[in-house]
Amino acid sequence: MLIRWATNEDKATWTELADTVAVLFNSPNMASDKFFHDYMESKISKYEALAAVDRMSGRVLGVIGFSRTNSRISWFAVQPNSRDRGIGKRLLGTALRHLDNKREIIVITFPADCAGGEAARAVYQKAGFTETEEFNDENGNKRCKMTLSPTNEKRGGSFHFKYLDYAKYSLLENCLCCNNAPAPDSLLDIAELEYSFATAERIAQGRLFGKCHVLMKNHYVNFEDIPHDEMAGFMSDVQRVGSALRKVTGAVKINYEIHANSGPHIHCHLFPRYLDDDFPSAPIDYRITEPSPYESDEEFIWFVVRMREELLK
Q: Three-state SS across 120-162?
């Protein structure tokens, strides 16, 4: 099963799903209602609707809609013959990533005594929602407001949480790297190479002495989209920096990672690995940065200067 953004191609299946649950939702004409079709258009265009899709058949198994502005889940259903497979849990969990966890999040759902509404309530409750109000809607239907309290959970900057930023900065005209946006004060240029720039920060991810980046000059978001000759040139730059890095740092080996999940412009992270690093037989936790592996500002500058010397040879 794949959780992805709903698209215009999903509208027919989403409408069929709406027709299936219309009676339970006390909205028998939902599938033909213009308001519902306008809602689908709006949610799809704003990246506020997620679809659960069977990978082999392409069949849509469930859909969830939400509002960033109003901090709420606004539409949620799973195909009746696809329930009890964890689809609802995955859809809701993914939607919550794209809502502000520092705000109260609400959903209007079925009351406790509603036959057929038990599964939806259970999914919300397992996600931490609690019942805060019962009321009758404008049509006299009994409803329940459930609320998820704000949290202090620290979130990263990747597309998993900030997809709108990711989509925006994926475009060349908005790319921070390509439009001379101010770099962090702690970021220093090591060298300009033929296809890239090598840089390093005193705040070293993984607390690994010499951790640095090789940033591609031209704008690409996906590695597989880079023309072959340009890709080969970029990787040649990466190899060159890696060779200098192992020599300067005394690392046993260098790990190479290409992500662009937070900054959508291709760059390669170079992580020197040491006998005494913090991740024996384990992946690097890039979130760990303190205390710095550099004993002083002078030692960091020494590293940058030595790298420049090696790359100029």
A: HHHHHHHCCCEEEEEEECCCCCEEEEEEECCCCCCCCCCCCCC
In the chain, domain spans: 2-148, 163-175+185-312
Arithmetic mean of pLDDT, 261-271: 97
42 CB contacts (<8 Å, ≥6 apart)? Answer: 48
Query: Once rounded to an integer, what is the mean pLDDT over residues 255-281?
Result: 97
| Calpha distance 116→114 (Å, rounded) | 6
| Helix boundaries (H) for 193-259 | 228-249
Q: Percent of the chain having pLDDT more than 90?
A: 88
The amino acid that residue 285 corresponds to is: D
The CATH architecture of the domain made up of 2-148 is: 3-Layer(aba) Sandwich (3.40)
Residues 70-93: b if buried by 16+ CB within 10 A, e if exposed: ebbbbbbbbbeebeeeebbebbbe
Structure tokens at 193: 């190479």
Angle at 133 between CA 130 and CA 136, to 5 degrees: 135
Across-strand partners of 49? 65
Mean residue pLDDT of the chain comes to 95
pTM (2 d.p.): 0.91
pLDDT digits (tens, 9 = 90+) for 41-93: 999 999 999 999 999 999 999 999 999 999 999 999 999 998 889 999 999 99
CA angle 232, 234, 238 (to 5 degrees): 110
Assess contact for 273 and 208: CB atoms under 8 A.
yes
Superfamily (CATH H level) for 163-175+185-312: HIT-like (3.30.428.10)
Residue 310: per-residue pLDDT: 97
